[in-house]
């Protein structure tokens, strides 16, 4: 078995070909595998005493969590887990891996403490692997704060979700154009985020890739990508608690009046749920639309509203 202090444990098994061109030796700074460059977080959560608690925890700096809190009055059993990172953000050569196993009947909300900064890279790139598992009847939400890619940054993220047929999983992510106040608008080298969902028997439900590469194929300014918008958000609702067509209709109705955004909602393959993409010119507008989608999905699938996380 591969050890958790081995870079292979934290590196995707099959890297996209375009990343191999960025895989150079770090000339100025710590290279891949150096202390503090391999972040590992391995969590298992399960129902205990009427609430969801952490039953297994392994963390390797710079990734860590504090004690989960329970702040949703409509779902007091739900554990809110804040994923945290020592330091300011991703730098070249970082390899992070997060594994979260939510047992049958558990309720978990994963988020981050602040926006994720991705610093410029001259010799290498950064990766993050996120493996989420939701057991029978479990509810799992993953809604991190936005990603902020700096000039010259390179980030590859791969999220794999494995869920039981009667589990409910809500996922969201927002990508900002960069440090706009410093004149950086989509000046990164590469941003690639892959999402894959499977049943517990291994059957593929769907796969989605958001790939942006300024100045090349996948340029954010192209009509085929962001089409002049600056901020992009993605929201995914996986559940069998409501027919997908009805969920799509509900999300469309919720997003239609949200100002200053362009939003689309589609039924996902295999009848597993609905997918949302939101485009806008400001973080505030896109995040308002993302919250509206999260709230409506919760009301439809769980019968409760989204809580106030008091962030920002």
UniProtKB/TrEMBL annotation:
Q: Which UniProt keywords apply?
A: Chaperone, Cytoplasm, Nickel insertion
Q: Where in the cell is it found?
A: Cytoplasm
Report the domain of life of the source organism: Bacteria
The primary site where this protein sits is cytoplasm
Return the similarity comment.
Answer: Belongs to the UreD family.
Q: Which PANTHER family match?
A: UREASE ACCESSORY PROTEIN D (PTHR33643:SF1)
* Entry function: Required for maturation of urease via the functional incorporation of the urease nickel metallocenter.
Q: How does it assemble?
A: UreD, UreF and UreG form a complex that acts as a GTP-hydrolysis-dependent molecular chaperone, activating the urease apoprotein by helping to assemble the nickel containing metallocenter of UreC. The UreE protein probably delivers the nickel.
How is this protein named in the record? Urease accessory protein UreD
Q: Which organism is it from?
A: Amycolatopsis rhabdoformis
Quote the gene name from the UniProt entry: ureD
């Amino acid at each position: 078995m591969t050890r958790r202090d081995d870079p292979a444990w934290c590196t995707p098994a099959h890297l996209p070909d375009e990343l191999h061109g960025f895989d150079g030796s770090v000339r100025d700074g710590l290279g891949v595998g150096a202390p503090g460059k391999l972040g590992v977080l391995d969590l298992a959560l399960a129902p205990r005493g009427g609430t969801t608690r952490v039953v297994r925890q392994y963390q390797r700096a710079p990734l860590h969590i504090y004690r989960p809190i329970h702040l949703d009055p409509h779902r007091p059993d739900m554990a809110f887990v804040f994923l945290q990172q020592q330091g300011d953000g991703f730098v070249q050569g970082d390899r992070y891996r997060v594994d979260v196993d939510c047992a049958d009947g558990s309720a978990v909300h994963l988020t981050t403490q602040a926006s994720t900064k991705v610093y410029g890279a001259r010799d290498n790139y950064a990766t993050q692997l996120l493996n989420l598992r939701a057991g029978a009847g479990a509810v799992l939400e993953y809604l991190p704060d936005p990603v902020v890619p700096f000039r010259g940054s390179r980030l590859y993220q791969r999220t794999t979700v494995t869920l039981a047929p009667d589990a409910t999983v809500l996922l969201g992510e927002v990508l900002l154009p960069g440090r706009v106040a410093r004149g950086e608008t989509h000046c990164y080298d590469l941003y690639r985020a892959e999402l894959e969902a499977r049943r517990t028997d291994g059957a593929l439900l769907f796969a989605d890739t958001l790939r942006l590469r300024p100045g090349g194929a996948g340029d954010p300014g192209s009509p085929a990508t962001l089409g002049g918008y600056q901020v992009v958000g993605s929201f995914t609702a996986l559940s069998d608690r409501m027919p997908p067509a009805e969920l799509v209709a509900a999300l469309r109705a919720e997003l239609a009046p949200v100002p200053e955004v362009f939003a689309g909602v589609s039924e996902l393959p295999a009848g597993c749920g609905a997918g949302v993409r939101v485009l806008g010119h400001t973080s505030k507008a896109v995040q308002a639309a993302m919250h509206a989608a999260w709230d409506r999905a919760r009301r439809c699938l769980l019968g409760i509203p989204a809580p106030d996380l008091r962030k920002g």
